[in-house]
Amino acid sequence: MSRLAADLSALVEDELRAFNLERMYAGEKGATPASIVESARTFPMMANRRVIVVLRAEKILKPKRRGKGAEGDDTSEDDEPSGDVDVLEAYVKQPEPSTTLVFVAADVDRTRRLYKAIQKQATIVECWGLKGGKDPKVDLRQVARTAEALVRQAVADAGQQIDPAAARLVAERAGTDIATLRGDLDRLLLYAAGKPKIELKDAQEVVSAETAQDDWAVTNAIQRRDTAEALRQVGLALESGGVPYMILGQLGWFVREKLVLTDARRVPAAVEALLRTDLDLKSSGGDPRVLLERLVVELCGR
């Protein structure tokens, strides 16, 4: 998705991008449906094309509903972008010929009028990552071959070679998650920068943990007071897509259900640390990973 958006942005010549290329993040101030239309209606300067790329467009194309509204209801939560979606729908039906308007979205609500208008007027590209489609039935062997080919191609583009076993390891550890594959591959290329050939031991140093990671590895390590292992497992959980609030909830369960039985003296300080971390997460009082790591250290301590 990112590469396709970048290729479309390249329609504008480098020296004219300051005038004719605009990137907007849906949901942020100044990126309402009305402001998107206003920008799209602006004529290009010293060129024949203007490109508008709207990122995180699911904020507009799949906003949260207030309640069980009728099909096609465009009512949204307070945290959704302000502005009249009807204005954007009208633009989609009669777009500006000199503007290329691109929506990059993680998901869409196919029942909404806006999406139906886009479906009729626009070119839609669906990116399903390694799975290749929305069909829940996945040929894991084909996924692994696709992932391995992507690894080899990326390494070749970087001017390096990779041992077949190393490429297979990176592909297998990613499973069907292309985000994991991309993250592991980026780290591998950075780790092995300058090496003519990436070997298996290089891949073993940097790739993510196996997809069959123990969901309770963090709490088990805390119960053993193994701080180093608990921190490692928190990192692995976050890198594999774990949500900070879910991890915090798991740690809260551990304090309420386990710690109170095994070492009640540690409970008051643990509860205080949980509440402080919860408040910091809700108020953006720091990087979520750092906040969780600090909590883990406190829960492991005496």
Mind explaining what this structure looks like?
The chain is mainly alpha-helical. The chain has 3 domains: 2-121, 3-Layer(aba) Sandwich (Rossmann fold), CATH 3.40.50; 137-206, Helicase, Ruva Protein, domain 3; 217-300. Helices cover 53% and strands 7% of the residues. It contains 15 helices and 5 strands. Strands 1-2-3 form a 3-stranded parallel sheet, with helices on both faces. Strand 1, helix 3 and strand 2 form a beta-alpha-beta unit. Helix 3 (33-40) runs parallel beside helix 5 (85-93). The longest helix is centred in the C-terminal third of the chain and has 19 residues, at 244-262. The chain is globular, with a radius of gyration of 24 Å. The protein starts with a helix and ends with a helix. The model is unreliable at 68-82 (pLDDT under 50).
Radius of gyration (Å): 24 Å
Weakly predicted, low-confidence segments = 68-82
How would you sum up the major sheet?
3 strands, parallel
Shape summary: globular
List the domain count as a whole number. 3
Percent helix among the residues?
40-55%
For the termini, the CA-CA separation is 47 Å
What is the CATH class designation of the largest domain? Answer: Alpha Beta
> In CATH, what is the homologous superfamily of the largest domain?
P-loop containing nucleotide triphosphate hydrolases
Q: How many distinct beta strands?
A: 5
- The average pLDDT value, as a whole number, equals 83
Per DSSP, the total helix count is 15
The CATH architecture of the largest domain would be 3-Layer(aba) Sandwich
- Return the string of H and E elements: HHEHEHHEHHEHHEHHHHHH
Quote the beta fraction: 5-15%
**Strand line-up of the largest beta sheet:** 1-2-3
Q: Which fold name corresponds to the CATH topology of the largest domain? A: Rossmann fold
Q: Which structural class do the helices and strands define? A: mainly alpha
